[in-house]
Amino acid sequence: MSTEMQIMELISTAGDSKAKAFEALKKVKEKDFEGARALINEARKIDIEAHRIQTELITQDLNEDVESPAMSLLMVHAQDHYMTSQLAKDLIEALIEVFDK
């Protein structure tokens, strides 16, 4: 798979994870904490795939036997999506615990 396709896959996967996290936040508003936790767990499973892709890209960059992929705005965009999805998931997970008390 080309580097560009890997980057697009990272963007898509991170977006799916963030969407699940925000669905979980809607469940919090409805006081459906079990539903919220289930959605956060789905987001975590999606994150495993996003992390795998990110690790693959980093490994390629560190491999001295091949030319490193060029840093691009698309790569920066993918990293931004990934880190934002992680932050959203972590914050919403904390909100579930706060509001379920």
TrEMBL record:
<keyword id="KW-0808">Transferase</keyword>
<keyword id="KW-0598">Phosphotransferase system</keyword>
<keyword id="KW-0813">Transport</keyword>
<keyword id="KW-0762">Sugar transport</keyword>
<feature type="binding site">
    <location>
        <position position="80"/>
    </location>
    <ligand>
        <name>Mg(2+)</name>
    </ligand>
</feature>
<keyword id="KW-0460">Magnesium</keyword>
<feature type="active site" description="Tele-phosphohistidine intermediate">
    <location>
        <position position="77"/>
    </location>
</feature>
<keyword id="KW-0479">Metal-binding</keyword>
<feature type="modified residue" description="Phosphohistidine; by HPr">
    <location>
        <position position="77"/>
    </location>
</feature>
<dbReference type="Pfam" id="PF02255">
    <property type="entry name" value="PTS_IIA"/>
</dbReference>
<dbReference type="GO" id="GO:0016740">
    <property type="term" value="F:transferase activity"/>
</dbReference>
<dbReference type="InterPro" id="IPR003188">
    <property type="entry name" value="PTS_IIA_lac/cel"/>
</dbReference>
<dbReference type="InterPro" id="IPR036542">
    <property type="entry name" value="PTS_IIA_lac/cel_sf"/>
</dbReference>
<dbReference type="GO" id="GO:0046872">
    <property type="term" value="F:metal ion binding"/>
</dbReference>
<protein>
    <submittedName>
        <fullName>PTS system, Lactose/Cellobiose specific IIA subunit</fullName>
        <ecNumber>2.7.1.-</ecNumber>
    </submittedName>
</protein>
<dbReference type="GO" id="GO:0009401">
    <property type="term" value="P:phosphoenolpyruvate-dependent sugar phosphotransferase system"/>
</dbReference>
